Amino acid sequence: MIQANKNGxxxxxxxxxxKPLRAQPFAYLNWSKGxxxxxxxxxxxxxxxxxxxxxxxxxxxxxxxxPPMSYSPATGLAYVxxxxxxxxxxxxxxxxEAQVRDIDEAFGITYIFPEKGLSYESVESLYxxxxxxxxxxxxxxxxxxxxxxxxxxxxxxxxxWQHATSQDYFVIDGGALSTxxxxxxxGREDGKFVVYDAGNGHVLKEFDTGSAIMxxxxxxEIDGRQYVAVLCGHGGTKWEFTAxxxxxxxxxxxxxxxxxxxxxxxxKPELRHEEPYREPPERSGTPEQIAAGKALFSxxxxxxxxxxxxxxxxxxxxxxxxxxxxxxxxxxxxxxxxLPRGMPRFDDAISEQDAIKLHDFFIDQAWExxxxxxxxxxxxxP
Length: 382
Fold this sequence. Notes:
Layout: E1 2-4, E2 9-13, E3 20-25, E4 32-35, E5 41-43, E6 54-56, E7 70-72, E8 77-84, E9 87-91, E10 109-112, H1 120-127, E11 146-152, E12 159-167, E13 176-178, E14 183-187, E15 192-197, E16 203-208, E17 218-222, E18 225-232, E19 254-258, H2 287-301, H3 326-333, H4 352-380
Antiparallel strand pairs: 1-2, 2-3, 4-5, 6-9, 7-8, 8-11, 9-10, 11-12, 13-14, 14-15, 15-16, 17-18, 18-19
């Protein structure tokens, strides 16, 4: 029995006794210095975030997350969707200078992904001083944030071939399907559905679907004709559409099915069209109120909402689009006016004074996005 574990180790177990036969890293990791003779991890004390913020590989998403791996008896290789990315872990209960307290009271641990464009100024205004990330691994041999599809030989742990599927941003690409015909099918969040040679990893075919692909393909046969189908659409724990096909196309849930004599081009969803930012209402909050609103946003809102980028939930920097008045905003946030749309009420956690601070922060963010839009527009004018 084989498993590419979230912890970064690839395990081979005796399927009858459960006894480990082999284990070794298949992705960069620093939380462990190796394994003991009985295959127990030797924890690296340098990665102990109990002593302060630490950069820990792999991230809490794991080196291999939920998208399924595949094994081909024909090639003897396992095909593993891999995430090579760290996170910064810190215990907020031990940081008196932090402006935000994690709402998971049982843990109080927060994590930060080192994606491209990370603002240390913004992070440190909420959590206090943090170490800086390098955009490559400490050995300098590979980018620090990327997703991969890896073909691994379970008998040796050797990575036989690999392909980078994303870089600089956290994405969860789709699972892998290996077939008796010597092929591997795997989708990507950038919308590509790729067919690989299972033996050498050469890309044989690539379809641009216009849809983020997180699921694993499956195959079936009807009347001697083989089909490959895959579920499309971005979802899960990362609500922003950054680095996915949903940045450019409507995030439409759909199933795509392929056959050898199928159409050459995949029909795409409609192109995404974002309305320009309208001029926001006048700022009224003080810098202190806006800073407090930012902390409240990070604690209560940021798990579902974005600022300035398309996402599965509304972009709260677009406050001028129908909810500019505080009374309307308060009715939604504390009164539950949008409960039928899936937006819970927060009157048990957010006071009216807190709601005012949140409102001030969102107006400030609306002005920031409006300013960027106008500067970009001016720069393109002759």
